[in-house]
Structures are given as C-alpha cells and as structure tokens.
Predict the structure.
Amino acid sequence: MTPKLKVALAVAVTCALASLPWLASATILQFSISTLLLATLAQGWNIIGGYTGYASFGNSVFFGLGSYGTAIAMVQWHLPFGVGLVFGAVLAVVFALVLGIPVLRLRGHYFAIATLALSQVMTAIVSNLEIAGRNTGLVLPLLNGDPLFYELSLALLVLATLTVFWIAHSRFGFGLIAIRENEDAAASMGINTTLYKVLAFAISGIFSALAGGIHAYWITFIDPVSAFDLSLNVKMIIMTVFGGPASILGPVVGAFVLSGISEILSSAISSVASLFFGAVIIVAVVFMPRGLADVLRRFRKTGWRYFSENVKKYRL
Amino acid sequence: MSESLLSVQGLSAGYGEMSVLREVTIDVSRGEIVALVGSNGAGKTTLLRALSRMIASTGRIEFDGHDLHDLSPDQAFGLGLVQVPEGRQLFDKMTVLENLMMGAYRRRGKTDIRATLEYVYELFPRLHERRAQRAGSMSGGEQQMCAMGRALMAKPKLLMVDEMSLGLAPVIVDQLLDVLSAIRKQGMTVLLIEQDVFAALQVADRGYVMETGAVTRAGTAQALIEDPEVKRAYLGL
C-alpha cells in the first residue's frame, strides 16, 4: 500500500466509525464507547510500555486522576466538562513528573512493582479526601447523550493514535526505542534518558486521564475502588500485547478484538465467560507472542509455519 | 606541546561512602592518543564515568574550554565527549546500520551524517558488509567495531574507548589499534582505557598508570614501556 492509500483508508475507516451513532442500537453504542475508551487506554500504555519498554501498572492511576479531576471540577467547583477534562489531564502530568522521576529510575520488574503499589496508595488517599467524596465517591450531573460520548471517545482515540504515529516516526520515538533496547547505550549516545522517560510517562498519562474524564461523565458516578481499578491496567497491557506492542494500530485492533470476544462470550455463556477469555489470551500468547501486528507482517512470508515457529522460538 | 583538550585536576570520585578516585590529575592534548592503563579495580572506568558525568566528582574537569562540573551526561556528550562503553553496549536487536545511526542521534543534516557514515564504513569495511545484520548476532570483534563506529558517528572531539581489547583475539585487537592510529592521524583525540597495558602503550603517545585510585606513573608511551617497574608489574618481563 502506498502512503496516500493508507491515509485515505484511515480517513475512510474513521468516518465510517464516526457515523455509527446514526446506525447502531443503544446497546451497541454503549459497548462501542467503552471499547473506544479501552483502545485509548491501550494506546496510551503503548507509549510507555510498548515503545519505551517500561511495563507500567500506574496507568490506572492516570485514569483515576482523570476521572476524579473531572468529577471534582464539575461537582465541587461547578465548572464545565471541558475544564474538568483539562484539570484531570493536568493532575496526570503533575503525577507523572513528580512520581515518574523517582520511579522511572527503577528498571524491569522493579518498575512494574513500584507502579503496582501506586494505585493502591491512590485509592487510600482519595478515600480520605473530603473534596473527592471520601469512600462514597461523587455523582456527576447526568447527561443523556451517548452519541456525544461516542464521538468524543472516537476523537480521543484518533488523537492518541496520531500521537503514537508521530512517536513512531520521530527523533523522540527513536530515542524511546533506544532506551527500551539498551538504556545504558542510549545514555552513552547522549540521550537524556530521564527526560525522555518522564515525557513518555506523561504523554501516556494524558491520554489515560482524558479517557478517565470522559468515562466518569458518561457513567456519572465514580468511587475510589473503581476509579483506580488495577484490573483496568491489566486490560490495557493484555490488549496492547495482543495487538502488538510498539506498533501504531496494534493496541487499537487488540482492544477491538478482545472487547468483542469478551462481549460475545459473556452474552453467550455468561457464567464461564472469563474462563474462555483466559483461554483466548493463553492461546494468543503461545502462538503469537509478539501480537497481531507481527502476525500480519510476517504471515505472508512464513504462512502457517509462523505459529509453530513461535512455539519453538519462545520455548512455550 | 599542543593545546590541551581535556584537563583534569585533583579529581576525586566514588560510589556512595566509598571513595575510588583520589586526586587524579591527567591531561590530554588535541590530536594525541593517551593511554590510561592499570589492572582491575584501579579506578579506570570510574574515572571515565566521572569524565562523562555519569557520577558526581570533586575537582576540576575542563574540556575544550568548558567546565564540566555541573553538566549532565547528555550535555557533556553534546560538547563532543563521546565514549565507547565497556562491553560494547550495542542495541543488540537493531541492525548494524541502525546502531550506527543511533550514534548520530544528536546530529542534524542528512548529507553530513551520510558523509560520516561513509567514513566509518571506510574505516571498518566489515560493518558495511554487515550493515543489515542484527548487531547482537555478530562476533565480539565485529561488535567492538560497531561500537567504535557508532561513537565516531557522533563526530566526537574526544573519543574515550573503554576496555576495547576485552575478550578479543590479539589479531583483532591489533586491527582495532591500527584503526585508532589511523583516525588519530586524521586529527582525532583518543583516550584509551585499557587493562592490556602493552597493547595500549603500542599506539599511545603518552600514558598514565593507575593503581588503587591514583595515578602512580606518567610519561611518554616509550618511557613507560621501558620503565622497569611497569615492565615487572604489567608486562611480565
């Protein structure tokens, strides 16, 4: 495909997606909103986890900060939704800078564990804040406008994807990849690794926070446990890894496919759906450990052998 | 004597409570190869880390007219202080060409970078042959070439080479030393940090011998090779 054709295709797909509210039922629309938000979260995780190679479990904190930022601004200060979104994103950036600088000094598992603790800490802090409604949470003003939430979520996903596209083709992104591949070497090549990592963390956080803000206003209710839910972070990772980390469309496709599978399973066989969902993940990890993006790239060359080779290569 | 490029005076550094370097004073002039030799644990790599500002230090470091004391590693790099790190530190999963281009990360101007790439390929024809190969799949000698080529891609003013000979066959080390001599003739300044005292002093103009964190001997390479103490301790003669 030529680049022009790719752009045309991307625009066409986006337009088609944008017309969904006029075509789909209310249930499908709701499912689509949550899928788009998940895809945005996965895309955000892709920046810090996929490109920079730092497996963050702190992205659900960004989501929670975005939710609470928006809710506090709207409920306590009676500010408009847009201002709330910006406030949530600012909180996320501040958090990324203040905590990123110490936490991003840790590498590998240590970084993952340190960020794992962050969402627990935030749950505890927010549960004790008067302005955040303590344990009971906050109730946002009701807005019956699923089409609006849908278009907002779609716009945010497009923005996140364009950002990842820019990263993948920029000097900055090249620096992030260098950090992922060998941080010491990146430092000895004159890359300011601390600055780059913190920036990647912050950009990742902005998208998670904006998704959190939209989600809070859409759901109209937030409480500490659901806002800082760690399993949401796990979903981001699974979707990104399933689709293909450090690829531009991988996390989006991963989110769409896995949300779809999960939805079909839970409506068809509600009680054991998560069991089947787990099986899908295991099969995916065994046969395509580098994600759908890698399958698409290499399947044409290797054919069905691709899957057996993966099993051999990664000794699974 | 020609103009000084790097001047280190009374430099002390260490890790936490432990001090490693005591009052080190060395000097590197433009266009010369200076060898910094000594056995394991003498503090050579610590000195290099202090020079590239990876660790804090006291004392004076002046490079190309700039005081390095308050600079970060990337700022020191920006002044042209580039190292070939110990253990090569290549981007294993990237190709040779990608590794080389990482060296030019901070530079702008495609034609300029292209010219340096041609120059590196000229110095190391093997890298040109293997440009599309994954760096991690090459032999140790080729990886060392790649690491040196990558550092040269940054157009350094001072090339600091750390333990270049480690784990390499003598014939490969000789080849690499020849390359260092060649780039010196074209005006490059090299600080060669080596355990292989004899190899380093072969190509160097001057040398410093380090022992337990301090410089114990200094002089021309010839004088050091002939020094009975150096002979006895390092050359086994």
About this structure: Chain A touches chain B at residues 171, 174-175, 178, 181-182, 184-192 (CB under 8 Å). Chain A has a mean pLDDT of 91.
